[in-house]
Amino acid sequence: MTAGNPSRPSPGVRKAGMSTTASSRESSTARGAGSSSAAGLGKSDVELPALGPLGMARWAWTQLTKMNTALFLLLLLAVAAVPGSIFPQRIQDPAAVQDYIDNNPALGEWLDRVQLFDVFSSAWFSAIYILLFVSLVGCVLPRAAKHWRAWRAEPPRTPRRLERLPEHRSLALGGRDGAGAPAPGDVVADAARLLRRRGYRVAVRDTGSAAPSVAAERGMWKEVGNIVFHLALLGVLVSVAVGSLFGYKGQKILVEGESFANTLINYDSFTPGTNYNPDWLDPFSVRLDRFEAVFNRDTTDPRSYGAPLDFTAEITVQEPGAEPQPETLKVNAPVNVNGVKSFLIGNGYAPVIRVTDGNGDVAFEGPVVTIPSDGVYTSSLVLKVPDARPDQLGFTGLLLPTAVTGPDGMPRSVDPGLANPQLILSSYYGDLGLDSGVPQNVYVLDVEELTELNGMLSQSGPIAIDAANPVHELPEGKGTIEFLDVKRYVGLDIVYDPGRFGAFISFVLAFTGLLMSMFISRRRVWVRAAKGVDEHGRACTVLEYGLLARGEDPRLATEAERLSKLFTEQWGTADPPGDPAAHRSTNRAWSGPNHD
Amino acid sequence: MTITETLGTWSALFMLLAAMTYLVAFVAFAWDMASHSRTLRRAEHHSRRDEQLVGAATAPAQVNSTAGTTKKADDSRPGLGANERGRGHKPPTRAVLAEHVADSSMRYTGERRPAARAALTIMVLAFLLHTAAVASRAIAAGRVPWGNMYEFATTGALVVAGVYLAALLRRDLRFVGTLVSGLVVIMLCAATIGFPTPVGPLVPALQSWWLVIHVSIAVAASGIFTITFAMAVLQLLQARRERAILAGEAPGMGFLAMVPSSQALENLSFRLNAVGFVFWTFTLAAGAIWAEQSWGRYWGWDPKEVWTFVIWVVYAAYMHARATRGWTGTRSAWLSIAGYLCVIFNFTVVNTVFEGLHSYSGL
Amino acid sequence: MISHPSPASRPSRRRVLSLAGLGVLGLALAGCTEEDSLAQQANSGDQKGYIAGDGTVSEYPADQRGEPVQFTGTLFDGTTLSAEALRGSPALLNFWYAGCAPCRVEAPDLRELAERFDGQAAFYGVNLRDERATAEAFERTFEIPYPSFEDKDGGVLMALSAYVPPQAVPTTLVLDAQGRVAARILGIADRSVLETLLEDTVAEAA
């Protein structure tokens, strides 16, 4: 199935006995060569089976395992994958899909129905690749069987007319200066030995006859590579399936000083494998001790000043019954706990805020996770305080790590570092809707049912609190908000994928197979020796040999030259010393007729 | 000004000079095409007259006989042709075509082509300037020069030029010089105008050895695909011209007389594409390994991953097309072109328009 | 509405399912399997920030319960308490935090049940995310009469996960008088169901 594998011998060569190796798929491809067998095959192609369901199934199987079908399915697969890059995908970002559907309700619903948000798990995409893999197996297994038989059988019989092969040479051995010509039988035996030393498997034929020959073949590993490549692709698919059945992936945001226990209840979000039981979660906990972000402080290039250089999280891993283990987590260096890997995916600031309600009680105190939206960590913040009394309070706004007030009077962040952290907030009161039990996006405050207290456009203006002015009194005696501190947080992906190792092994196999099938040349050589006369009319032994490549082989001519050299060296030593001309005449005594 | 900044400025200057030099090489190659194909046509005309006078059989390779060079026996040997697969012409047809196309072995014949020689010299000069530009950029940034789209494009163009010049050592591929130098100029211009990015440090996500492995192989594969794209375009033109010749019409597009037959082009580009495919497979897998290390999954159908997959599948289809009846020749050339368009799409649109994890364009 | 899968039969069924799953790899990949609650939550993209339960109740008959649970935790008032201190009478552990919408829904029911079983069963909360002031504000709002463990470091959670893992917010565990897990409710606890469970466990102890 891969490149250059199925051979398409030229018409003349097919007669020379190569048709023995044409598999069903190959023979359908060999037709283009215009050989006589094409007509017969073509006929069976068009004929409709009149065999009932079994025949129909056989016919369908034949169609499916055809190269044309495989090629069509491949192209279809490429086309089918494209929408997966155009529309947001649930496996990528379920929130983006929800946004898309919310923004385009009519279209979105329709797209969802045809699984365009789940392209890679959709019925149609799966149908294509399952058919493709069935086709692959249906093609590769018979080929493997065929190759197994071919390997066990001897190299094919020697064609009658070697000069019709793509590479053909002949040498006249001996017979000059009265030296006796070597016996054809000995020549063939020696040639067989030489070829075997070059890695050919050989079979000596017609010994004892007037024209004994040797058939040789090398590069049997090419087809093995081809088969391994395709089966390993199947291995990749199975590994991916194992991963998606028995693996999981979860997200957790951890503020400095907080811990995460690997239990479902502690995840922010969790995507189980189709067949994963959350009871199987391996219990361990991770505490984020410290997170450090290094930004470029090289002032010589203002354009890259402040660019992130390094993110490092110092964590402590605790497994049950074991000592706590300090670990370092970096962007390209996950921490592995019994096959469960934790990855540093994101980071940001979590300002510590205290909200006192209208009754004077502290209704909230703690770090609030904010979402950075640009390179200088301008971060959006949403804080819901459902336990504030007499009214629930809600806050939305920005954290500016290094706030500077621009000429327009608008504060903005100019650096990702924490030089002058400031909170710019709007505040609301009313029913937050949490008490109804309906799940809410923690990063969005639905202000429709709420009354604004502070805002950009409101009379009281926005809340602006920083280290110098940490407390802000809310209007109408609804309470106060206090900016206590800023902590850092990390976004972790916790992933378990039991198919990972299998996928890697499968890839290594596939790649090795690909290299083998691409760069090993499968060649056949036939050598025949017979008594004859050289160009001067003297009796000699004519050594004739032809080469044939299976598949693409640009170096067949080079190989023919190598063999010439080898044979010349072998029998050239029999030449009388000091007679270089004789040597030359031996080498390519006559060139074969121009073929084709 | 610091050393970094100075080097960065030098790099930009070298890049500009290289682009201009490539442009001159392009013009020279085009001139060679025009002048040399005129020579060929004249030679063809002469030989036809000779034929009529002598009534001899057609010489197998007109170019050689015109140039009066040696090794007729070698040329008449099928050589590459014997192992050629694909949409093969029957021997008599091939003989007819041989008059109108260059020798399929693509060996140097020793005839004089001053324009081509000049073009080549200029191209080597451009390549040296280009190398200096990319190297000074790498030194200025203190890392491999493929951290953003500007660097990927300029380094990719360097690989294209390098692969082409290396191939020239073994084969006479000067006929693709116009296309290759033209593409390199376009790549450099696109990088400079489309994605200008100052020298800067790498974001933490890119700080990995895999950047060296994954992206360098991707650049190399893209470079190979660029060259095979150029050959596929020539193959289509040549195939069209061959049909015209066989139909007895005026072939037109005289410059194609110095280009080998469409089948020889197909064979060579297939072999190059096979190498490109192996590289791309490795790119894909190395990317998966890196993604597994960086993002926690080896394959997540990120837009970039989707397109890498699409490209892989298209070239896989191309490899299979070679062994499929009815898909060789023109159709497989179209597949090669489609694959290359996907590469371009993957590099430009996917990087800039689609949102994904591979958003390192530096835009 | 409420399923009562016996815990003993559960793992084996899972195992059978996983074997069957291997057999139908392709089909599973093709998305032919029905989405369970977890997958649905993952795909909804609602960013609610916690894993919700669907109210599944698992009741463990006395002869099928595991070992008595072991844990040590600190209450918000600073008292250190271990599992041994809860033995002798049934106990209820409720995992919660203030910003969790379903926790706020079941809080009034828990308060009433805590009052109804006062003296018969001990009630404790396990707060997973809040600092003291936030937790106390919640307790003020719903007039929660029982104390909660401060479990931001996941100590109590980790210890309990070894027995019957809490898999949603809220999760409610009922421990029998010997300290073994008698029942688990994932998600909002239905008041009458929880009441029955507590009554059964109290009756057992008596």
TrEMBL record, chain C:
Principal localisation: other
Keywords linked to the UniProt accession: Cytochrome c-type biogenesis, Disulfide bond, Redox-active center, Signal, Signal-anchor, Transmembrane
Compartmental location: Cell envelope
Gene3D superfamilies: Glutaredoxin
Keyword Protein transport (UniProt): no
Alphabetical list of InterPro entries matching this protein: AhpC/TSA (IPR000866), TAT_signal (IPR006311), Thioredoxin-like_sf (IPR036249), Thioredoxin_CS (IPR017937), Thioredoxin_domain (IPR013766), Thioredoxin_ResA/DsbE_sf (IPR050553)
Signal peptide: 1-30
Pfam families reported for this sequence: AhpC-TSA
Region (Disordered): 43-64
Domain of life per record: Bacteria
Residues covered by the Thioredoxin domain: 46-203
Keyword Signal: yes
Name of the protein in question: TlpA disulfide reductase family protein
Organism: Kocuria atrinae
